[in-house]
Amino acid sequence: MLDIQHLSFAVTNEAAGKEILHDITLTVDSGRFVVITGPNGGGKSTLAKMIAGIEKPTAGKILLDGTDMTDLSITDRAKLGVSYAFQQPVRFKGITVLDLLRIASGKRLSVSEACAILSEVGLCARDYVNREVNGSLSGGELKRIEIATVLTRGTQLSVFDEPEAGIDLWSFQNLISVFERMRQVRSDRTILVISHQERILNIADEIIVLSKGVQDYFKDTYGRETHFIPNGVNRPEIKDAKFITEKFGLTKDSYILFLGRLVPEKGIRYLVEAFKNVKTDKKLVIAGGSSDTDSFMEELKELAKGDDRILFTGFVQGAMLDELYSNAYIYTLPSDLEGMPLSLLEAMSYGNCCLVSDIPECAEVVEDKALIFKKSDVEDLREKLQDACDHPEMVMKMKKQAADFICEKYNWDEVVKETMKLYRRK
User: Fold this and answer.
1) Which pTM was predicted?
2) DSSP secondary structure string, 377-426?
3) ∠ CA(217), CA(223), CA(226), 5° rounding?
4) What is the DSSP string of 88-130?
5) How confident is the model at residue 83 (pLDDT cuts 50, 70, 90)?
6) CA 292 – CA 263 distance, rounded (Å)
């Protein structure tokens, strides 16, 4: 069983930081075929690399059958039973395909045995068995050879990072057949596939989604029934303002908080434009690192120029993050697009009054326990911000009910119960 506990990964430097993965918890039972999918830049490959030991998590643990392998080397994980197929396969000058398969299997395979394995991945075996694994092979050929090495290793956990890349001449269904045969050979073998191709979901036994909107999408697009099991949230310990006062001059209820990735779909442009016309002494704190490039961050700073109430903290984590949540006057999420906004659940669990756009992914979470404005409407957002700043009694009322509401609605015990019920059906 693969057990991932509260896994986070961030890239930081002196100037800024990016949080790639935040508090990921995932359990994969032995013998399961699990696909993790999503858009480019979502952190899928980073998760795969942390499982393999190529990247080290910022926080959290990774266990395989109860053995904590968080700090184990790549070699030790391989000995424990982990295989990893790269998104871009490695070339080995001077090593033949037969040599590579023998190294992977740990035994001296015969030529016929090696040919049988290569045939499994759609290669004309006799043409490849004595070729070097070097630049003479195409990307697609290298990809299939790498899948063959994982196949012959027969490990307990096999992780494939975008295995469909470069195999357009070899049918996608044949790749699926390889995965299915891997499970048949060893029933306790777990296969974890990372992909941004949603078509791979057609082979999944069951699909869990985190929001009703995504559930509707899969029904309308693929005709697939899915299981809506949202994230859960724990009630946190409220922290006094200390580090945020020392570093940013922030005190209890002195600021409006946005926290998340700085990307256009989060609606941060609207927030800055709206806030600049709000009459208040409170600050607007925009906390989070840039995503992919820094160009959008620079655009936001240019937009905020001239208003010294607007503060960009960069990437935050740990005690600083806890204090920002604990002491905000309002938390706002003005997004145009969301999946399941975990930051919104966290903000409410800290007892925050929240102001969100009226997209279903946000409105379904907060119901009538938060303030809502019309998506993309800068003037409506400004009015809601001004009203909240002018009426602290309304904000305090929202604060008092937020934590109890969200912790009961998104209870981890219920999430675990529903997830285990689904697993036990198989």
Assistant:
1) 0.67
2) -HHHHHHHHHHHHH-HHHHHHHHHHHHHHHHHHT-HHHHHHHHHHHHTT-
3) 65
4) SPPPEEEEEHHHHHHHHHTS---HHHHHHHHHHTT--HHHHTT
5) very high
6) 9
Mean predicted confidence (pLDDT) in 15-39: 77
Q: Cα(34)–Cα(160) distance, rounded to whole angstroms?
A: 11
**Residue 151 in contact with residue 123, Cβ under 8 Å?**
no
**In this structure, what token pair is assigned to residue 368?**
């009538």
Read off the pLDDT band of 172 (50, 70, 90).
Answer: low
pLDDT score for 15? 45
Q: How far apart are CA 24 and CA 19, in angstroms?
A: 12
Strand partners, 85: 160
Please name the residue that has the structure tokens 């959008």: 296
Tokens of 1: 């069983």
Q: Judge whether 312 and 289 are in contact, CB under 8 Å.
A: no
In the structure, how many helices (H) and strands (E) does the chain have? 17, 18
Q: Which two tokens stand for residue 23?
A: 């508090």
Distance CA 222, CA 203 (A): 12
Residue 349 CA to residue 233 CA, distance in Å, equals 7
Q: How far apart are CA 136 and CA 410, in angstroms?
A: 54
pLDDT category of residue 39 using cuts at 50, 70 and 90: low
Nearest to 348 by CA among 303, 424, 406: 406
**DSSP conformational letter for 236:** P
Measured from the Cβ of residue 105, the count of other Cβ atoms closer than 10 Å reads 17
DSSP 8-state class, residue 411: -
